[in-house]
Design a protein that fits this description.
By secondary structure, this protein is of the alpha/beta class. It has a single domain, classed as 3-Layer(aba) Sandwich (Rossmann fold), CATH 3.40.50.720. 45% of the residues lie in helices and 21% in strands. The protein has a seven-stranded mixed sheet with strand order 3-2-1-4-5-6-7, with helices on both faces. Helix 3 packs parallel to helix 4.
Length: 211
Amino acid sequence: MSEVWLIANAASAAGLALAEAALKAGAQIVAGAREPARLTALAARHDGRVLAVPLDLAAEATVYAAIDAALTAFGRLDVVVNLVDKVEAPPVAEMDDATLRKQFERDFFGVVGLAHAVLPILHEQGGGRIVHVALRDDDSHPASLAASHAVRGYFEGLAREIAPHGIEVSVIETDGMPTRESGLAAQDARRKSGEPAPRGRVVDFPARSAA
């Protein structure tokens, strides 16, 4: 049976690359984006295997609507990917409290909100995987970095709770993963010049024993 993936922010360069890799492996994709029209070409290339839906992690109604659309179209969910794009923000000293809180709402509560929304479905199915991709680099905003650390801690604790239900959690921490077309161009330039590729690591929770 083909796996069904739900990818948040699938219209970003990293999201499109991930969707293409999953499709190549035989998956069916529910591709979510704030502007789903940007996913038209992806859906056209993979007729019937890609469902483009509106999805904004900061808007709870779109999260539940995307999940409902996935279940209606494909009948299940196997892999749910939080992929939070990097956004430009003013220095913390220039931000008011409301703006700072809004950014943390997006990068923490928006991310864990998707996990909360899919957990009952994964429980009922008896398994699945939640993946969070932390897109960070040396220029990441302090609020984004704080939210990223909070998300990692949250998923580490959540994984222990849901492991008995066959649900796994992976956190992918990157250094410099491209999130837009310009980022992909920069990556290609680095590769041609022989510069090292961006670093990153995958953390699976609960941690597997060495035995």
